[in-house]
Amino acid sequence: MPRELYLQRTARECLENGRLPRMQSQCIWGGYGRGDICSLCGEPIRSTEVEFEVPEPADGWPQAATRHVATRNAEPGTAFKFHITCHAVWQLECVQDDKASGTPI
Q1: CB-based burial of residue 38 (10 Å sphere; 0-12 exposed, 13-18 middle, 19+ buried)?
Q2: pTM of the model
Q3: Which of 20, 54, 61, 75 has fewest C-beta within 10 Å?
């Protein structure tokens, strides 16, 4: 399966099961990776790759009750870390999903 299709499928699954929030990134920090795990693909973000860090909104996730077990008990203000491509795919899937349901982000 081509990588882009894999990432799209993974993003949809993460949105459906609550592992990632359905939201637009309001604030993004960027820099070189430090080996942290990408919140979408689960691969390390190497020092030769761009890492995007998206902080959780101060008011939490709208669907906090449905958060995935791995992130449900995370500290408030948890940041999601992404490869630049993974972030783009996640954001596109959030928009696609909301267009299909008619819900504004």
Answers
A1: buried
A2: 0.77
A3: 75
Phi/psi at 24 (5° precision): -90, 140
Q: Which strand (E) or helix (H) includes residue 98?
A: helix 84-101
How many Å separate Cα 38 from the centre of its chain? 8
Q: Largest alpha-carbon pair distance within the chain? A: 39
Rounded distance between C-alpha atoms, residue 25 and residue 27, angstroms: 6
The C-alpha atoms of residue 10 and residue 5 are separated, in whole angstroms, by: 8
CA distance 15 to 93: 8
Predicted pLDDT of residue 56: 81
Q: In the structure, what pLDDT confidence band is assigned to residue 97 with cuts at 50, 70 and 90? A: low
